[in-house]
Amino acid sequence: MDYMRLMAEEGGYSVNGPMQVFEYDLFGMKLAFSESIVVEWIVILILGIVFFILGRNLKVRPTSKRQVIAEMMVSTFSGMVSDSMGIRYKKYTPYISALFCFSMLSSLMGLFGLRSPTADVSVVGAWGIITFILVQRNKFKTGGVKGFFKGFIEPMPFMLPFNLIGEVANPLSQTLRHFGNILTGMVIGGLIYYALGTFAIGVPAILSLYFDLFSSLIQAYIFVTLTMSYVAMAECD
To answer: Residue 117: is the preceding peptide bond cis (ω within 30°)?
Structure first.
């Protein structure tokens, strides 16, 4: 919530997108890097270090708490995928677990005074596009060319426009739900800091437990659950 407090102390309160951190000139093209990109790389670095530590020197029989924690995490995500998608989709476990951890930690970056990347619609939108691609891939894989295109005109050919809208609406609503909840938490927290001013002690910190901690966990869980549901239900007969 420190990020919200800083925004509110600039003589007013405004809601803007992520700041541009720096530019890079590549063959005459200017590439701009925003806060979201920088914080995402920080999240990747943190997760890489954590998982490297948890995955080192594993034994057939656990001999350390570190390995027990690692096995518990793998079992939890493996069970989540098997229960939601079926055992045949177990290969999605690495992606679902990575998406959950990345989403949750990205949302939690607000606790460290950084702007949460999940408050940037382009970040969560990229995950929604991946979900859309996985859905179409599963349709094509299970139904072939005929089943893939047949699904767009069922139960009647005039349903084609509505089916196309539905294909786009699912990842779009999934994206906006996650983005909207995280951004709303940032805005509400900032408004509270701005309204209370020098008296902003205690109340914003308590609200932070929800907006930065509880909400981050819930939104990450909802996003991966919807991803699993959309992919599993995309089978063509």
So the answer is: no
Q: How far is CA 165 from CA 101, 141, 162, in A?
A: 30, 21, 5
The pairing of strands 29-34 and 20-26 is antiparallel
Structure tokens belonging to residue 40: 């995402």
pLDDT digits (tens, 9 = 90+) for 192-216: 666 665 565 555 556 666 667 778 8
Question: What's this model's pTM, rounded to 2 decimal places?
Answer: 0.80
118 is written with which tokens? 């999940």
Residue pair 135/230 in contact (Cβ under 8 Å)? The answer is yes
Token reading at 90: 């177990």
User: Could you read off the pLDDT of 39-60 as tens digits, one per residue?
Assistant: 999 999 999 999 999 888 888 8
Here the tokens at position 49 are 């270090």
Residues in the chain: 237
> Are 220 and 104 contacting, i.e. CB atoms less than 8 angstroms apart?
yes
